Structure formats: structure tokens, C-alpha cells
């Protein structure tokens, strides 16, 4: 079958390569959740998605044979890291950031290193339920704190609704900022429930809970996650769907109000 | 990053006793860890103080509230008592950085964050603040982000905090513990200093002094407040110029004013004379414009930051107007 026929028959998503099958099995996406997930992805994005697993799998495997704890360390600190319901005692150089501990020592490479200086949000994880930057967090300060990374969001093989929404609305292009965007979005759901304010909130004195965030609010509150590909509109749309069930197309700043109205109704 | 030993202080005493001249206390690490990666800060010991018990907000004897130094910026800004009584502080704090950084940053650390002068961050450039005696790269260099008030020949940097601009407008006090176990309280206007001949010193703390709490006066600006932050993009950026404006208005007359500016000096710049001028006046455009002229009359900009003078005037008028027009 050539590409065009495959596309016409719509059969491509049923035909997974062996490697792709293996990845789905490994991450525990089976049966209906696998079909649901596949339906939301085009064939092209599937192979790109899968290739990221392949390469990280290949790169990570030799690292797995490293001893858990190096023999000699300068200023050694011992930390119990609780990450996604797993606990691991690590001996670390005191300089190790949480980001490096996750990626280099626990092989949790979902969390990304963008700037390493607090300026991009790619390294966002949740610490005791709050979104934080793992690049400016020293691993030594994380003893017994609950850390949730992108790898910890899916449950029983089902993606977190926010992960599903990002797939459905194409909330990414290259995908590098995506783990940070998703962790940040999941934390923001809670912040809105708790009634936390932002700089663009009208009235700071009136404290309400279960906020329904406007688009302006979402953009301000998600500003700590920079997307070099500029997938912002789709990210806002994905967030809105999970946050308020409304996935209306976000405002495109280059169109007039009238043009926007027309586009939304088409 | 250079090697350092790490101590997780279990209590205040341990923190103070472990301190040496080459140590740094560690709050959220959002400024310190960054500067250590840049090789600008080079401590040989970090003493973590973020877990010490100063994490509450309580009523104080002055009719105001006291903020724990180790409480996070986001918990402080979103505390119901702070939002209700000091919305100006909440607004300023929420304009800073991002949700992730505010979740990490402590109140004490916020006061002690260092300048964002690009020369200060770049170790291949001269900078008297980083390396006393090496010269000031900014004075005859790129100085668009620098001071227009209170600078010296040695340094023209600005203090970057938004929270501190609101605290300056509100008359706060900072309580610190000394290593000998005694404590002292510093008026907020005396907490940060001008660069003078010692730009390496940002504030009046002695080595080893630990910030424990911040005291706030009785709330005065809970109805009329605005924090205006002007920046190069609409979020996640430091202020070019910012204004904290608080007004107390009774029967159509200003009875108390708080006015401070960020991004223009080595410390949050409080306009004490202008605050006095506004008191007893009607809150209207004419008086706000006169206040803005008075505030900016001593500004002495550099080649790259002339824009700050006009921007500052407009920002004052806008912030005062927004504060006044807010529905009480
Ligand atoms: C990308 C980015 C953007 C930012 N944008 C803004 C912004 O727009 N506006 C703004 O205001 N800020 C901004 N910030 C700065 C941020 O607010 C500060 O970094 C933060 O408030 C510092 O608090 P911390 O607890 O992390 O301090 P740390 O980094 O832990 O410490 C800072 C300093 O304070 C000392 N210290 C800490 N606690 C104590 C204590 N209890 N007693 C004595 N000394 C102590 C440390 O030794 C260190 O010297 C930004 C930061 C980043 C990284
Ligand atoms: S302005 Fe201050 S911080 Fe900037 S280069 Fe000059 S001395 Fe250094
Ligand atoms: S990698 Fe942490 S903010 Fe960019
Ligand atoms: S998808 Fe490429 S950086 Fe966001």
C-alpha cells in the first residue's frame, strides 16, 4: 500500500510496527485506551511520538546498568526521593539539581532541561502538589517530599485528561516544552479550584473558590511555560477543555472580533 | 557550580550557629542557585532555612499583620487576610516572575534577591557589585535597564523586586535574628541601601543575620490600590518601571497616600515628599499630574534609559488613577 492508499483506507493506525507495539505494551496502553489514544493521533504524529520513546529507550538502557550510587562523591548528601509513588535513596553531590537527579539518576527523562536558569518552565514538576522548577531546586532539599513528574500522571494505563486534551488539540509542535506545560496545567486546575488569584484578577479582596478562568487568566497563569514553537492557542484550548469543559477556539490576536466570530461559527 | 556543603537547619539556633562568613542561607533558591550556576555567588556552605517555623501570617500589636519570612510568595499573596487587608501587596507579588517561581520563592529571599544588571551576571564583564574595584560596565555601556535615582559613580544598578516596592509604599518593618541570639527590627526604608562606595552591599544586614518575619502596619490602602508594572512583554519579565500606589480617601479627600517606584534605583524608591503632598488633596487628574512631576523632578537618566523619566510620570498618573477609580 502506498502512502496515499493507506491514508484513504484509514488503515494506518491499525498497523503498528513491531517497535510501536512494544512501546504501547511497555507504557501499559492496552485495549480500549490504546484505541482511544490512537484515534486521536494521526499516523505521522504517531511515528514521531514513538520515535521519541525509541531513542530515549535506547539512550537510557546503558545508563540503567550504572550503579545506583557512585562510589566517590564530593559533599555527599543522602536523599530519599519520592517520585511518582516510588521511593529511592540516592547519594548525591550536594550540587545536583532535582532536574538532574530525575534525568540522570532515575532515568525519568520526561522532565526536560530548557534553560537550566528558571526562565522557560520546561523542567516544571509538582512538589507536594505545587508546580515548581526542578532546575533551580536542589535535590538535597527534597527529602520526603512528594514529587510528581509527567511520567506519574497516567493512571492504570489511562492518560491524564490533560494529556489527552493536549493530544486532541495538538498542544505542541516539537513537544519539548510539553511535559512542563502539562504538569503546569494540571497544577493550575487545583489553583483555580482553590481560588488563587493572578496579577490580572479584577478584585483581590473578593476571594472565591472554583474559579472559571478566562482566556486572559489562563494565558497569564501559564506564562511560566514558554513554547518556542508557539503552540499557545492550542495549549489554551486543551486547558480550557479540561478546566471548564469548554474547548471553544481561543482568540487569535491577528483577527478582528468579527472575523473571530465567523471562524468560531464555521 | 563550585562545591559546597549542605546543611538542612532543623531550627533557627542551628542555622545561626552553623553560619560562617562564606555561608549563604538558602530559601527557595530561585535567585541563589541561579547565581551559583553563573559563578556569581560562590558560597562554600548552604544552610537551608526554608523549612524553619516562620511560615505563618498572624495579627500583630500594631493592628496589622506579620508575615513569616519563610512562607512562599504565592501563599503570602493568596492568603485571605493579605488579599483582604493588603491587596496592594498581593497584586505586586503576583505580578512577579511566574506561578512556579512564586511557589518556590520565600518572602525573606525576595527581599534579598540581587540585581538583574546583565553585567552583574556575566563574569567576563567588569562589575563593582560582583567584584569590587573592577569597574562598572553599565555606566558607559548598555544602561537601558538601570537607575535614574540615587546611583553612584561605582554602580547604577536597580533592585528588581516587585514585592519590595509595595512594602516600601506600605511602611513595613523587617525583623532579623543575629548570630549572638539577639534580634532587631529595621524600618523598610532603611533595609535596602544606595550603592555609594560599596555597591557590593545591597542592604544593611550584618553577616549572618537571618530574616525571620516582616511586620505590616495597620492596613490603610485596602480600598484604593494599584500595582502597575511596565515590562517588555506582558508577563514573566522584570519591570522597566513599576508603581505601587495606595490611597486612603475619606469624604472625597486623600487622607493617606503610599507611593513607591521600582526599576529606577538601587532600592525601592519611596516618594515620601509626594505622599505628604497628596495628603489633604482631592484625588483628581490635576493633583495626580502634579504629584508625578514632583516625583520625577530629580531623575538623572543615562544615555540608554532616558525613556524612564517620561514613562515614570505616566505610570504614576495611571497607577494613582486606577487606585482611585477602583470600586471601594
Ligand atoms: C526567571 C525569573 C524571573 C523572575 N521575575 C521576577 C519578577 O518579575 N519580579 C520579582 O520581584 N522577582 C522576580 N524573580 C526573582 C524572585 O522573586 C526571587 O528570586 C525570589 O523572590 C528569591 O527568593 P528565594 O526564597 O528563592 O531566595 P534564595 O534564592 O533562596 O535566596 C536569595 C538570597 O537571600 C538569602 N536568604 C534567603 N533566605 C534568607 C533569610 N531568611 N535570612 C537571610 N538571608 C536569606 C540567600 O542567602 C540569598 O542570598 C524572578 C526570578 C527568576 C528566576
Ligand atoms: S550597575 Fe552595578 S551591578 Fe551593573 S555593572 Fe555597574 S556595578 Fe555592576
Ligand atoms: S529548565 Fe528550568 S526553567 Fe528552564
Ligand atoms: S512544542 Fe516546541 S517548544 Fe513548545
UniProtKB/TrEMBL annotation, chain A:
Source organism phylogeny: Bacteria, Pseudomonadati, Bacteroidota, Flavobacteriia, Flavobacteriales
Domain 2Fe-2S ferredoxin-type: 77-153
Molecular function as annotated in GO: 2 iron, 2 sulfur cluster binding; metal ion binding; oxidoreductase activity, acting on the aldehyde or oxo group of donors
Protein source organism: Zunongwangia atlantica 22II14-10F7
Lineage top rank: taxon: Bacteria
Keywords associated with the record: 2Fe-2S, Iron, Iron-sulfur, Metal-binding, Oxidoreductase
Protein name: Molybdenum-dependent oxidoreductase iron-sulfur binding subunit
Pfam families in UniProt: Fer2, Fer2_2
InterPro entries attached to this UniProt entry: 2Fe-2S-bd, 2Fe-2S-bd_dom_sf, 2Fe-2S_ferredoxin-like_sf, 2Fe-2S_ferredoxin-type, 2Fe2S_fd_BS, Aldehyde_Oxdr_Iron-Sulfur, Beta-grasp_dom_sf, TAT_signal
From TrEMBL, chain B:
Keyword Iron-sulfur: no
Gene3D superfamilies registered for this protein in UniProt: 3.30.465.10, CO dehydrogenase flavoprotein, C-terminal domain, Uridine Diphospho-n-acetylenolpyruvylglucosamine Reductase, domain 2
Presence of the UniProt keyword tRNA processing in the record: no
Gene Ontology terms, MF aspect: FAD binding; oxidoreductase activity
Pfam families the UniProt entry points to: CO_deh_flav_C (PF03450), FAD_binding_5 (PF00941)
Sorted UniProt keywords: FAD, Flavoprotein
Boundaries of every FAD-binding PCMH-type domain copy: 1-221
Superkingdom of this protein's organism: Bacteria
Name the UniProt record assigns to this protein: Molybdenum-dependent oxidoreductase FAD-binding subunit
Species assigned in the record: Zunongwangia atlantica 22II14-10F7
Organism placement in taxonomy: Bacteria, Pseudomonadati, Bacteroidota, Flavobacteriia, Flavobacteriales
